[in-house]
């Protein structure tokens, strides 16, 4: 369970425009080990979803992967043919989307959609065997009375149950890597925790590597081992969750953590990050966060900062780091949800 499953190295993804290519993802690098979860966080438009879709070899329409390496178990996916990538999807890499109705066909029963995975991926011809496996999967994702739900349609399930079905379909081929792109955003907090508890149990059982894209930093604190903070197409800080949450070194990371409401203790006014993230294609020279940064100086506007390796598994891209002795006074450091 200790080996590296996914390595993304200097990934670049570009969109076409009338003024030339626009970089949506610009030199992103991270790694995920077996049995570990990486939290990918940042404001909307920071490039999180484009990064994940690029890993799958399915960048959005009009976007192309222009550089970098995507290594799955040491093999570069960028060198694979479309047919080879199609074979890897499902078998080696699964993806759980924010809205399970985008993964499920509303016109087909749940049983039909799950058993098709065994038919086309594993070549199981026996209908009885395929249905037995589907029932076992539904039971494992804690859907009550799975035998009676095979003939149900997606609209007959709640949002949480549909997400469990989507997880079951991803588990059908036992992938080494699961990408969960905001899988609980549309769910209430109780169901949200149930879904993520389920993913954690599956991970413990199978040693699956997980990339969790989310805006909810409480969930990152509770479920992730490592966190990468993205801003305007780049990773500005990454490292172990405990270190990042206790002592963020990038001003953007500190701003995100300071904007999270506290549930206990002394209440303080939430941090507000002024301004808006830059639009793709309008990014100026220098640090992309500089126009919103309280620590920005002249050198921040002239060149983008090189990524500094602070210690093992921790890095940050900033000319003027937050002092190491400053800890963020946040519930996130000790909270249990």
Task: Describe, in plain words, how this protein is organized in 3D.
By secondary structure, the protein is of the alpha/beta class. Among the domains are: 108-173, no CATH class; 248-333, no CATH class. Helices cover 28% and strands 23% of the residues. It is built from 9 helices and 12 strands. The chain has an 8-stranded mixed sheet with strand order 6-7-8-3-9-10-12-11, sandwiched between helices. Helix 3 crosses helix 4 (127-140), helix 4 (127-140) packs across helix 5 (159-171) and helix 5 runs parallel beside helix 6. It is globular. The model is unreliable at 329-337 (pLDDT under 50). InterPro entries: AAA+_ATPase, ABC_Ni/Peptide_Import, ABC_transporter-like_ATP-bd, ABC_transporter-like_CS, Oligopep_ABC_C, P-loop_NTPase.
Given as residue ranges, the uncertain stretches (5+ residues, pLDDT < 50) are 329-337
- The averaged pLDDT comes out at 88
Question: Could you state the order of secondary-structure elements as H and E?
Answer: EEEHEEHEHHHEHEHEEHHEE
Rg calc: 21 Å
Largest sheet, if any? 8 strands, mixed
As laid out across the biggest beta sheet, the strand order is 6-7-8-3-9-10-12-11
Termini gap: 27 Å
Number of strand elements: 12
User: Roughly what fraction of the amino acids lie in strands?
Assistant: 15-25%
Q: Approximately how much helix is present in the residues?
A: 25-40%
Number of discrete helical segments: 9
The global form is globular
What structural category characterises the helix and strand content?
alpha/beta
GO molecular function: ATP binding; ATP hydrolysis activity
Organism: Caballeronia choica
Family: Belongs to the ABC transporter superfamily.
Domain ABC transporter: 6-257
């Amino acid at each position: 369970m200790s080996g590296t499953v996914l390595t993304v190295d200097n990934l670049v993804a570009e969109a076409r425009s009338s003024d030339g290519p626009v970089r949506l993802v610009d030199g992103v690098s991270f790694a995920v080990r077996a049995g570990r979860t990486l939290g990918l966080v940042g404001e909307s438009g920071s490039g999180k979803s484009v990064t994940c879709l690029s890993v799958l070899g399915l960048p959005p329409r009009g976007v192309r992967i222009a550089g970098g390496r995507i290594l799955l178990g040491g093999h570069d996916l960028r060198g694979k043919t479309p047919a080879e990538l199609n074979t890897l999807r499902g078998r080696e890499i699964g993806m759980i989307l924010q809205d399970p109705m985008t993964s499920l066909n509303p016109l087909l029963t749940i049983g039909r959609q799950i058993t098709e995975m065994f038919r086309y991926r594993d070549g199981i011809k026996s209908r009885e065997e395929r249905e037995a496996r589907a029932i076992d999967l539904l039971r494992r994702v804690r859907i009550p009375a799975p035998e009676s739900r095979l003939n149900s349609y997606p609209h007959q399930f709640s949002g949480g149950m549909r997400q469990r079905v989507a997880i079951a379909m991803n588990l059908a081929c036992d992938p080494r890597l699961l990408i969960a792109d905001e899988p609980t955003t549309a769910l209430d907090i109780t169901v949200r925790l149930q879904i993520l508890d389920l993913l954690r149990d599956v991970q413990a059982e199978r040693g699956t590597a997980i990339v969790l894209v989310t805006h909810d930093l409480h969930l990152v604190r509770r479920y992730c081992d490592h966190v990468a903070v993205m801003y305007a197409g780049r990773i500005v800080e990454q490292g172990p969750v405990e270190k990042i949450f206790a002592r963020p070194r990038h001003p953007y990371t500190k701003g995100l953590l300071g904007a999270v409401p506290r549930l206990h203790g002394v209440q303080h006014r939430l941090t507000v990050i002024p301004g808006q993230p830059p639009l793709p294609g309008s990014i100026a020279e220098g640090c992309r966060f500089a126009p919103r940064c309280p620590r920005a100086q002249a050198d921040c506007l002239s060149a983008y900062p090189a990524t500094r390796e602070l210690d093992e598994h921790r890095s940050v891209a900033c000319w003027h780091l937050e002092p190491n002795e400053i800890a963020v006074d946040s519930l996130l450091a000790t909270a249990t949800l």
